[in-house]
Design goal:
single chain, alpha+beta, Alpha-Beta Plaits, 3 helices
């Protein structure tokens, strides 16, 4: 496992898809981020491993702040808006019939 020692880990997960979302979030904020797999040999250490997102140390605090804000954002706001829009479409569709 060769991870650049100059980079700092700001996020870790077992799911690569979650790491990709975080990487995209950081990239959209202007922070260059890389994903590193930490997979252990599954025949020796089953279930051990994961994925980390790493950034330049100078941007680590900003990256952690962005990730924290994202993790603490109420998911329900987006879900509620989508549900309301879908409900409005259903209501307008049923009244048109």
């Amino acid at each position: 496992m060769s991870i650049d020692p100059e980079l700092v880990t700001v996020f870790d997960t077992q799911e690569e898809s979650e790491a990709l979302v975080v990487q995209s979030l950081l990239t959209s904020a202007g922070i260059e981020a890389i994903i590193s797999n930490l997979q252990a040999p599954q025949d020796v250490l089953p279930g051990v491993g994961g994925v980390v997102v790493r950034v330049n140390p100078a941007q680590a605090d900003d990256a952690r702040s962005i990730i924290n804000d994202y993790q603490n954002a109420p998911e329900s706001e987006v879900d509620l808006e989508e549900a309301e829009e879908a409900e409005e479409e259903e209501d307008s569709g049923s009244s048109a019939e």
